[in-house]
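Let's inspect one such protein example.
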Amino acid sequence: MALATIAGMTPQGLVPKPIAQSIFAKVQEDSIVTRLAGTTPVPIEGTSIVVQTGHIEAGVVGETGRKPVGGTEYTPKSIKPIKVAAIAIVSTEVRKRNPLNVLENLQADLAGAIKRAFDLAVLHGRSTRTGQQIPDVEYLNQTKNRVTLGAAAKTEGGIGRDLLTGYDLVVEGDQVNDQFTGFAADHRLRSQLLGAVDTQGRPIFQQSVDLSAGFDNVLGLPTAYGKSISGRVGASADTGVRAFGGDFEALKYGWTDEMTIASSTEATIVDGDVTYHLFQDNLEAYMVEATFGWVISDLKSFVAYDSPKVAKAKASVSS
C-alpha cells in the first residue's frame, strides 16, 4: 500500500500536553532503544554533536618532574532528524457516540506506531511503512561485529559461547565505549535460551525450563525483547538478526519538544488505490507528526547476533 497523502488538513496546533506526555511515556516504556540507550536533546533543524574517541591518560612523575600533557580526541557526528507521521480515520457517528475513547484509542495507536517506527529506524535504518532504507542515516545493523548463533558446538558452550564471543568482540575493541551493558533481543531468542542444554541435557540458563520466565537479563545483563530486532515490522522484512548487544551508552537519541496534530472533516485522503472523501463520506481524519534523531558514537561498540539460516543464505549468495 502506498504512503497516505492528505490535501486540505487544517493544523490545530500542538497535541494537548498531557496527551503528548502520555504518548511519549508509552513510547519510552515499550521501545527497545529507549529502554537501553541514553538520551540527548535533538533540535528540529538537525545538528552535529561531538563524540569522544579517546581518553586523557595520566602519567607518573617525580616530585619536581615535569607534568605530562594529556590529549583526547573528539569527532563530530551529525544527527539527522526523522519525521514520522500517522493518520487515523474515524466516522463522525463513532466520535459523537464515544468522543473520549476516540482520542484515547488514537493515543494508544499513535504510541505503537511511533515506537515501531523509531526502533526500526535506529536498529535497521528502515521505514515501517515502506520497508525501504532511510537515506543518509547510520544504524546498529551496520556493525561489522557479527556472530552466527549456533556456531559454537554444545561441547564448546553452545549459545552461551556464541553470546560471549560477541561480548569479546565489543570489550576487546579499541573504541571508547567498550563496555557491554545489555542485549536487545528478538522474542525467538528466548526459546533458544530456554532450550539451551549442556552435553548431559541439563538447562544452561535456568534450573528447569520455565516458559513464564521473562529472561529480562541474560548473562546477568539487562535484556529487552521486541519484534523490531529482526527488522520484521510493517512492510520491512526479516533481516535475520536475533539480537544486538554492546555498550548502549554509545547510542544517544532524542525527540523534538513538540508533537503536532492536524484534523479535517473535508480533506481528500489518498491511500494507494483508495481515496477517502471525508465530507462526502461523513468521516474525520487525524494526522499526528513527531520528529526524532539519534547518533551512534562508534558501531564497533555493538555486535549483531545472526540466525544461522540467514547467515548461511547470505554466505551462499556472496560466494
Q: What stands out?
A: Residues 145 and 169 are 6 Å apart (CA to CA). Confidence is low (pLDDT under 50) at residues 1-6. The radius of gyration is 24 Å. The chain has one domain: 5-49+78-318.
